[in-house]
Amino acid sequence: MIVLDTHAWVWWSTRVEKVGPAARAAIERESIESEVLVSAVSCWEIAMLVAKGRLTLAAEVEAWFDHALALPGIRLAPLEPRIAVLSTRLPGNPPRDPSDQIILATALHHRATLISRDTAMHSYGRVPILW
């Protein structure tokens, strides 16, 4: 099982060629064999980026979510209370961004590999990460 960081989900869903080869192979494999999880906080992050004009999508944000969540193998991982609590108790030195903490907690909770290009995520070192 894998969890997509927000940017990885956007790039994968829009077929932007920024997803690294190892990450691309993992997403393709897991979308067939298991599940590709997207944290609910990623929906909030995307909506905020669109609202601030920092991200432009090919459709209205709600329609984009409908499309991106309907891709094969993609499943929305809700922000369960256990994930919320875990995000506040991440061991070591997690990234300071609360959204990153929730995404890391989602990966830890599901014992999943995280797909991310974010150096802060890679520096954390407590979750297997591909790019």
Describe what this molecule looks like in 3D.
Helix content is 52%, strand content 12%. The protein is globular, with a radius of gyration of 14 Å. It has helices spanning 6-13, 21-33, 40-51, 61-69, 81-88, 98-109, 119-124, and strands spanning 2-4, 36-39, 74-77, 113-115, 129-130. With 131 residues, the chain is an alpha/beta fold. The chain has a 5-stranded parallel beta sheet with strand order 3-2-1-4-5, sandwiched between helices. It contains 7 helices and 5 strands; from the N terminus they run E-H-H-E-H-H-E-H-H-E-H-E.
Short descriptors:
131 residues; alpha/beta; Rossmann fold; 5-stranded parallel sheet
Brief overview:
The chain has seven helices and five strands.
What is the structural class?
alpha/beta
Distance between the termini: 15 Å
Strand content: 5-15%
Low-pLDDT sequence parts: none
Mean pLDDT: 95
CATH superfamily: 5'-nuclease
Determine the number of helices (DSSP H or I, runs of at least 4 residues): 7
Overall shape: globular
Report the sheet with the most strands, covering strand number, pairing sense and barrel closure. 5 strands, parallel
